[in-house]
Amino acid sequence: MQTDIPHFKYRSKALSCRQSGYIDFGCIEADGEVIHKIENLAEFHKAFGYTQDMAKAGILPDEFIWEEYIRDAAANCATCFQIRILEYLIEHSAFFRKKYGNQCDNWIAAHAEARSAKGAACCACKAKSPA
Fold first, then answer.
1. For residue 12, is pLDDT > 80?
2. Can you name the residues that pair with 38 across neighbouring β-strands?
3. Which residue of 80, 93, 111, 118 is most buried, as measured by CB atoms within 10 A?
4. Phi, psi at 11, each rounded to 5°
5. In whole angstroms, what is the distance from residue 88 CA to residue 63 CA?
6. Are 29 and 35 in contact (CB under 8 A)?
7. Strands across the sheet containing 33-38
8. CB-based contacts of 11, cutoff 8 Å, min separation 6
9. Percentage with pLDDT > 90 across the chain
10. Are 59 and 116 in contact (CB under 8 A)?
11. pLDDT tens digits, residue range 47-84?
């Protein structure tokens, strides 16, 4: 049984096309291996907190993900990005559930503990905190 938490990466449609051969889709990698082809990018972006209001304001979904989760990861809450990917994969990837399903709760708990210890305040943390 694998005890190490894989590091998940999101590859946008443009990057996936060049690097992974998925011409029409984005993908998610775990430790360098493509584990999920994202067929509905709008649904994927929504899972990270991207809204129609943001789209109307001219904010591109990949820019939103970059700004909130990836750029300056030390200041943002990088663990939230990993939690969101885990939650997305659990819901949308049969392959992921089959390969890693029995470990996901432990991984989410470990990331949540790390997030709490850091005291980060990214959009995911803000969205889950009481008003």
1. no
2. 26
3. 80
4. -110, 120
5. 19
6. yes
7. 8-11, 26-30, 33-38
8. 19, 20, 22, 26, 27, 28, 29, 34
9. 21
10. no
11. 988 999 999 999 999 888 888 887 766 555 677 788 88
Per-residue exposure over 81-94, b if at least 16 CB sit within 10 Å of its own CB, e if not:
bbbbbbebbeebbe
Give 6-51 as a DSSP string: PPEEEE-HHHHHHHTS-SS-EEEEETTEEEEEES-HHHHHHHTT--
Residue type, 130: P
The pLDDT > 70 percentage for the chain reads 73
Indicate the pTM of the whole model. Answer: 0.75
Phi/psi at 19 (5° precision): -100, -30
CA 109 – CA 57 distance, rounded (Å): 34
Task: Report CA-CA distances (Å) from 103 to 18, 39, 86, 98, 129.
Answer: 31, 24, 11, 10, 26
Give the pair of three-digit tokens for residue 56: 């109307």
Q: Which long-range contacts (CB under 8 A, 24 or more apart) does 102-109 make?
A: 102/1, 103/1, 103/2, 107/5, 107/82, 108/83
